[in-house]
Amino acid sequence: MPTSHALSSALLEQLEAVLGRSHIIRGDELRQRPISHWNAKPTEALALLRPTTTEQVSDVLRFCHQFDQPVVTQGGRTGCAQGAEALPNELILSLERMTAIESIDTVGGTVTVQAGAILEVVQQAVLEHQWCFPLDLGARGSCTIGGNVATNAGGINVLRYGMMRQLLLGLEAVLADGTVVSSMNQMLKNNSGFDLKQLFVGTEGCLGVVTRAVLRLYPKPLSCQSALVALERFEDVAELLNIAQRSLAGTLSAYEVMWGDYFHRVTEPGGHRPPLSRDYPYYVMLEAEGADPHRDDERFQRLMEQALEDGLIVDAVLPQSESERRQLWEIRENFEALYQQGPTYLYDISLPITHMPAYVDDVKRALATRWPSAPCYVIGHIADGNLHLFITPPNDGNDHHAEADQDVYQSLLAYGGAVSAEHGIGFEKKPWLGYSRSATEMELMRQLKRSLDPKSLLNPGRVFDLT
Ligand code: ZN
Question: How far apart are alpha carbons 102 and 111 in whole angstroms?
Fold first, then answer.
């Protein structure tokens, strides 16, 4: 019996000629790699390929196309929707050796990188030249620019700088048949025909493999003001956001809301040290970045004092050093504690701010009916309309994902929300995409897929099924 998951020896020979044997990882060496940041099981795939240039990626894909070989692209494997998890019949195209920061234009404010460059490395590299790449998220130390493009990554600074789409000026991508599309634009304005790079932003590697990118930079901020504040009502959370955006003259860069039960859970003994009482209904970590340290500090202080005086906030802590600031951020970014009671499902839905409290109530009510003691913790980048929910179903050995999904997504329909705000669809949310997209939209997505990847070899089965 021929095994269905074997790599064609003729294809392997071609790949070895392109990459050299040492950059084709197979067997036990491949199984030593965990599937992803979220899944420690061994990687099962035909092989993992490690090209270093766009030309090599092009050669690899051309041969895979000839042999009808499905390929999944991997960056930092921190994605939250299982989109980069390999199947046993797939080849993995890893960009882990394509990490070059090729050039920094300190006049025009752009950086050109290979797609495997780690986000934090890019952030640090441009800071040395007094520039800032403002995309920022918890996975900054592992995620790659290519993955950020493929998922149109968001994170904590979106309210000021936009998502990856707004920070991307140009890119180079390789199509399923090996064709290289080089669209390395460096200008903010370029309306010369279709903006082809958008085909590869947020399309989760289904239409091509991003190999290089030109990113937009902002001047390095000269001041930073942060605070962790406590609030009694969600209406106050929403009002403080608006007041902060107006009174800080557009310098507000982060506004991260934590529902009280989340804060309470992650600051339990053994967790983060609580800098405020643990029993308020809402907490917000807010931050502003400006260019005039003295004035910026003054303005921020004034906002805090006024908000306290008006009763908008009921408690606040302002970090006095960078390490204190980092400790505050840890409360929001390090939520390992939530995963200690068994399998926990993470969601990234979006909906208008005004509907958030009612929506969260709906979900909690539905969950309480299903599993009376299952926790549901909520945090959010609310200025982006984005909430994250962490749901831990009963730890009884059964997979409850579909039931939790049902409660989270069904409740969303009434508010016109989206099943994914920033993580993408991957395999995980594929059954629910129809909740956010019409049949016509789904069909147009399929048409694009068929036209750019007619054999459906790139990240097949992710986002939607072709039939
Ligand atoms: Zn997020």
Answer: 8
